[in-house]
Design a protein that fits this description.
Blueprint: H1 9-14, E1 44-46, E2 53-56, E3 86-95, E4 100-106, E5 119-125, E6 133-137, E7 148-154, H2 162-166, E8 173-181, E9 192-198, H3 202-213, E10 223-230, H4 239-248, E11 253-259, E12 272-274, H5 275-281, E13 290-295, H6 298-305, H7 318-322, E14 330-332
Parallel strand pairs: 9-10, 9-13, 10-11, 13-14
Antiparallel strand pairs: 1-12, 2-11, 3-4, 3-8, 4-7, 5-6, 5-8
Amino acid sequence: MRFATPALTGALRAANPTYRMAAQHARTFATETAAPKKGNTGLWLALFAGVAGGIAYNQTKTTVKADVPVVAQENRPLAFNPKEFVSLKLKQVTPITHDTAVYRFDLPEGHTGNLPVASCVIVKHQPEEGKPIIRPYTPTSPQESVGYVEFVIKKYDTGKLTPQIASMQPGDSLDFKGPIVKYHWDEKPKAHVGMIAGGTGITPMLQVIRRVFAEDSQDKKTKISLIFGNQTEQDILLKDELDTIAKEHPDRFKVVYALDKAPEGWNGVSGYVTSEVVKAHLPAADEEDSIIFVCGPPPMVKSIAGPKNKMEQGELDGILKELGYTKEKVFKF
């Protein structure tokens, strides 16, 4: 997903890329930021993996359900360890687009991931030569799932780890450590959540969306507004599920699809998205009990909310700064 201001366009063209875990098993990313710099009031937003907004509400009757056990967590052993890596075998690969698939890994029998919403795990691959390759990935399987964990992963030809993952066969193994808690929804729920996601940046958003709209959810009044950008309509990940939630909860969930290469007849905004798009679809900067989540390629995050500083939030900048949001109202995954 490509989000860019005109000033960033040249640089972007050169760029290429429910239950709570015990406190000792979690680490939270910092939310404090440095004093923000003055922004450009003419900031424009272009999608790194796509932009053109099209408001879409569910038109499908499909409901996404887990096809393996999803049960309560009491007294179930945890599969992940935040202090050391554990090896898990790949069980199944389910393609969902031409370059993205759901990868299901087996957990030990009777074990659960029970990863807090929203959190990630660290994945490690040791090549035959050289240093290990380590990257964070966000699980998309239900928090309560037993015996398996799933990830939505897109292959990048220039990526260091995704080509290796894409070449894996059932029975192959990867090492995992975690969880790392990014934003602890149980501790900091909000009445209205705005989301801006690009490509596989949808995965932490999906954790929150599934949690809020689960049948047994306690979040019966929370509203979520999502802007989800991709290059083409075929690149939109898990669209059926998002549309289903939108149809079942029209007063609480809205999704705006944004495409870089919009097909003929696309009735949304094509090409660039201005601050007007954010103002039209996400909670306002002064709305009480609200927050904006941002996740996607670094150029997108930078133009929307300023760059992250490694594991820290970094200073707030970009379009959200221009619209008057404060660092307390924005979280960058």
